[in-house]
Each structure stands twice: as structure tokens, then as C-alpha cells.
Amino acid sequence: MSVGPKGNQHTIIRQFCKGCRICVEFCPTGTLDLDDRFKIAVAHPEKCIACRMCELRCPDMAIFVRKWAAKEGPMSEGRSQKAEGRSAEALNDAEGAESGAKP
Questions:
Q1: Domain encompassing residue 50
Q2: How high is the pLDDT of residue 6?
Q3: Which CATH number covers residue 19?
Q4: Where is this region: Disordered (predicted)?
Q5: 10 vs 13: CA distance, rounded Å
Q6: What is the mean pLDDT of residues 61-80?
Q7: What would the pLDDT profile of 32-58 be if each residue is shown by its tens digit?
Q8: Does the pTM exceed 0.90?
Q9: Over the range 35-53, which residues count as b (16 or more CB within 10 Å of their CB) and which as e?
Q10: How many CB atoms lie within 10 A of CB 6?
């Protein structure tokens, strides 16, 4: 796993990578390259914009990219875990009010 300066986390499962270069070719910023063993490597983590094109195009599911929110932790589909928690609390409160339950 590598974490770039923008907080983007790359997880590479090297045993799944067959060195096809699809992820390298689809990366719009040139973040990825192959290492000396022809396996995927994060050559320039500072360039990653967390677009996930590498992840979406990899036929072997060998790479995963996660964007981290500053100060809050990992993002989940564009929302921080902290925001997800607030949404869950609001939903529980609303469901309780609808059913007549007392808080």
C-alpha cells in the first residue's frame, strides 16, 4: 500500500497483476508504471487524482485506489466516514419519530 501526498491510497495485489499495462495506459496523470519485475508500481504518487481509472480498467482487480478526506479518514463513495455516521444517526432519528418511538 502506498499513500501519496494528496492522501490517495493505492493498494496493489502483486500476485494478481500480470503486467498487461492497461492501468498504466488509462492513467491520465502518469502515476503508474511497471517495476523491474513487470508488475504495477506507483511511480509518481504525487500525480494521482484518485480518478480510479486504473482500478476500473484492471482486468485482474490488482489495484485499488481510495481517496482520503483531510482530517476525517477514508472516503466512502465521495463521503467521509464521519459524514456517513451523521447520515446514519439522522436516519435512525427519523425512523424513530415515524414509528412513534421516544428518543
A1: 2-99
A2: 56
A3: 3.30.70.20
A4: 71-103
A5: 10
A6: 65
A7: 998 888 888 899 988 888 899 999 999
A8: no
A9: eeeeebbbeebebbebbeb
A10: 14
